[in-house]
Specification:
The chain is of the alpha/beta class. The protein is built from 17 helices and 10 strands.
Length: 418
């Protein structure tokens, strides 16, 4: 089935009736009946507080929830001068399709700014609305990425993979490249809707990193906005993040192929301006099961170590074998080894044309090993102190970029000859 629009007929008619707006706030959701009312309340208050003179639309893009998410959203009373549209989007299930419907509405309503917030947020405040929208409306930015005050054990995929790779590859220090809360201008919304990704896996899972990468490579004007503490339905990295890890990694590696000529020419990285919240609050702790993650890794080592030997260099295999012999009290997969493991994996992905999902699956135990190392390394640290570890790690990714380019080309050439 080919979908030329993610907007259903009912929503399309509502958009036609509204005609035009200054601002659209999108809330993608799926089975969020516990949190959706709170998020809508904060959005409607924020729009009323900061943009009362503007024409504002709140679009709830639902993925076919089986609980009462849509009913709760429909029943919630917003300010009488605002518009609300609650709709099930059309197309493949996943956040990407929900966003596509928001972007289409933004283009059709000719808005000046479009912001999106997650539907499971506990910590959203009315000021988030201003923090996200203001750089687009008043400073002419086209893409606003979020910065959160997060607990050191939250955002493990971002801290150990996505921030490092985005920064080293594309040269911009965007701290949360897969943050669910962001704002864009109408021309960016239009650019996104015109791309050919909406019926691929990117639309289902990898949409956040796809948007950020395209914002950089298209040279859109990018900034960040600090939203303060992010508290959402947090997930223990040992229990819930395996599938997300695989989806994000798959998307990053696919984007590396598409934008190869861009990132090969980038050296070093530039800071990205930050607006928004200026205070600091220590975030609520996220409890992780350290022993569980190490067990995941050791089980994976028993299953996959023979295959890992075909993929990784001797230095990486040595570091992996050392980690497999350690117990929780001294467990460590060193940062330098982790940088090379990820770079060698990217190069292998590039050189393999088949079984790529299998390749990413093989990586999951190594991700658990790296997160366990980071948790242990930062055990005594505050989240602010742990942030320095994240920065040190990111710098190591930048410093070893030549190694990435070398093995990227070598592995591909070997595969071509085979």
């Amino acid at each position: 089935m080919h979908y030329n629009t993610a907007v259903r007929t009912y929503a399309s008619k509502r958009i036609e009736e509204i005609e035009s707006a200054d601002i659209i706030m999108g809330i993608p959701c799926f089975n969020n009946e516990q949190t959706i009312a709170h998020v809508i309340r904060m959005v409607t208050h924020g729009l009323a507080k900061h943009y009362k003179e503007k024409r504002c639309v709140i679009l709830i893009a639902d993925g076919g929830s089986t609980d009462d998410t849509r009913e709760v959203a429909k029943d919630f009373e917003i300010k009488p001068w605002q518009e609300k549209v609650v709709t099930i989007y059309r197309g493949p299930g996943g956040k990407g399709t929900a966003l596509r419907s928001v972007f289409e509405a933004a283009v059709r309503l000719k808005v000046r700014a479009c912001a999106v917030v997650d539907s499971d947020l506990h910590s959203i405040t009315p000021d988030w609305v201003q923090y996200l929208l203001d750089p687009v409306l008043t400073k002419d930015y086209q893409f606003v990425a979020p910065v959160y005050l997060r607990h050191k054990n939250d955002g493990t995929i971002t801290n150990n993979i996505v921030y490092n790779l985005t920064r080293a590859l594309y040269g911009r220090r965007i701290r949360q490249p897969i943050g669910g809360d962001f704002a864009i201008s109408r021309d960016v919304a239009e650019f996104y809707t015109e791309q050919d990704v909406w019926e691929t896996d990117v639309a289902r899972y990898g949409i956040d990193i796809w948007m950020t990468t395209n914002a950089i490579t298209q040279d859109f004007r990018i900034c960040q906005s600090n939203l303060g503490v992010k508290i959402h339905d947090a997930k223990d990295p040992g229990e819930h993040l395996g599938p997300m890890f695989r989806q994000v990694l798959w998307t990053i590696f696919s984007l590396m192929e598409r934008h190869e000529s861009y990132w090969k020419g980038i050296r070093d990285s530039q800071p990205v301006e930050v607006f928004g919240y200026e205070g600091y609050v220590e975030p609520e702790p996220v409890i992780v099961n350290l022993e569980g993650m190490i067990d995941h890794f050791k089980t994976g080592f028993q299953q996959f170590s023979a295959l890992w030997k075909d993929i990784f260099s001797e230095a990486c295999i040595g570091a992996i074998e050392n980690a497999a012999d350690m117990d929780a009290s001294q467990f460590n997969l060193p940062t330098d080894a982790w940088v090379r493991i990820l770079y060698e994996l990217a190069a292998t992905f590039h050189s393999w044309s088949v079984n790529r999902y299998k390749l990413v699956d093989l990586m999951t135990p190594l991700y658990y090993a790296r997160v366990a190392s980071f948790v242990r390394q930062s055990w005594e640290m505050s989240s602010q102190e742990a942030e320095e570890l994240v920065e040190e790690q990111a710098l190591k990714f930048e410093n070893q970029k030549d190694y990435l380019i070398q093995i990227w080309d070598e592995k591909f050439a070997q595969a071509a000859q085979a």
